[in-house]
Write a structure and sequence with these properties.
This protein is an alpha+beta fold. It has two domains: 12-128, D-amino Acid Aminotransferase, Chain A, domain 1 (2-Layer Sandwich); 137-305, D-amino Acid Aminotransferase, Chain A, domain 2 (Alpha-Beta Barrel), CATH 3.20.10. It contains eight helices and 16 strands. Strands 1, 2, 3, 4, 5, 6, 7 and 16 form an eight-stranded antiparallel sheet that branches. Strands 8, 9, 10, 11, 12, 13, 14 and 15 form an eight-stranded mixed sheet that branches. Strand 10 (201-206) and strand 11 (209-212) form a beta hairpin.
Length: 321
């Protein structure tokens, strides 16, 4: 039996054509993806609005799911429209008003060689109520640790794709940062510049300008990241896309993480552990509390996803309509 203790309000999940009770196991131990990480996925959120639950940028997420599947050389057994419909049905089946949604495509049971020659591709869709990814610190700001390990390089893997196997690096990084007493980790790329968190993009603010980096810096160019660039323009904040050095990070007036799970979370302290042979040095951003621009971006993002700003209604898929 599998309890839903860490998956609030999750009652059923959908897999390969039918709903299953949350506690019902249905994956064979020799499933290819379980052994080799041959899966692709998306993290998507739905928010409560005055028109019922609405899923944020659902078509864009499914487009990326298909891109990831192509990188993993998967033939997806469903169309984009079918997957969108399944996701809406999962929200309804679980009677959720707000939700974190996880569609997962994976090579299932067949053979166990590295190449999944006879392993069919299956689709699993689950949803549950999930609050702030980094807990209470999402409000007050987090203390991050720059990891000694470097991010996968864009010359090694297609960084546009969310590949299950890639996330073992993220899991290890997240555990290491927390074991050292920090809230989250930050990767540098092979060039020694700031890349991203284990599952988050990064913005810095200097002299009123918001800056983030791009795919050439070995990041996943997140959907939340692209949304925030448009929101910044709507608010009249100038933006810049380009490499971020460690020095720029340390001397920023403000900084924040962004992503589907983390949403917009302020960074207020940085400890640099990137040189493993020397002691880490701590830096405080601004006054050591969330900055004015970060807070404005955070609140506006909340208003956008809850359907309060007409200009961005186009980004919402209303489940009951």
């Amino acid at each position: 039996m599998f309890e839903n203790t860490h998956f609030p309000k999750a009652k059923k999940f959908w897999q390969s054509g039918k709903f299953y009770d949350w506690s019902q196991p249905n994956i064979h131990a020799m499933t290819h993806a379980l052994h080799y990480g041959t899966s692709v996925f998306e993290g998507i959120r739905a928010y409560n609005t005055d028109r019922g639950p609405a899923i944020f940028r659902l078509p864009e997420h499914i487009d990326r799911l298909f891109l990831s599947a192509s990188v993993q050389q998967m033939n997806v057994p469903y169309s984009k429209e079918e997957i969108i419909d399944i996701i809406k049905k999962v929200i309804k089946e679980n009677q959720l008003q707000t939700a974190y949604i996880r569609p997962l495509l994976f090579y299932s049971y067949g053979n166990l060689g590295l190449v999944p020659r006879v392993c069919p591709v299956e689709l699993n869709v689950a949803a549950w109520e999930w609050g702030a990814y980094l807990g209470e610190k999402a409000e007050t700001g987090v203390h991050v640790f720059i990891l000694p390990q470097r991010r996968f390089h864009h010359s090694q893997l297609d960084m546009r794709a969310k590949l299950g196997g890639m996330y073992v690096q993220s899991a290890i990084a997240g555990m290491e940062a927390r074991a050292r007493g920090y809230d989250e980790g930050v990767f540098l790329n092979l060039e020694g510049r700031v890349a991203e968190g284990p599952g988050e993009n990064i913005f810095i603010v200097k002299n009123g300008v918001l800056k983030t980096n791009d795919n050439s810096e070995s990041i996943l160019e997140g959907i939340t990241r692209s949304s925030l660039l448009e929101i910044a323009a709507y608010l009249g904040f100038p933006t810049e896309i380009g490499p971020i050095t460690k020095e720029e990070f340390f001397t920023a007036d403000e900084a924040f993480f962004c992503g589907t799970a983390v949403e917009v979370t302020p960074i207020v302290k940085i400890s640099d552990g990137s040189e493993s042979d020397s002691a880490s040095r701590e830096y405080t951003l601004g006054a050591g509390s969330p900055g004015e621009i970060t807070l404005k971006m955070r609140q506006t993002y909340k208003d956008v996803v809850s359907g309060k700003i007409p200009e961005f209604i186009k980004w919402l898929t209303f489940v009951n309509e």
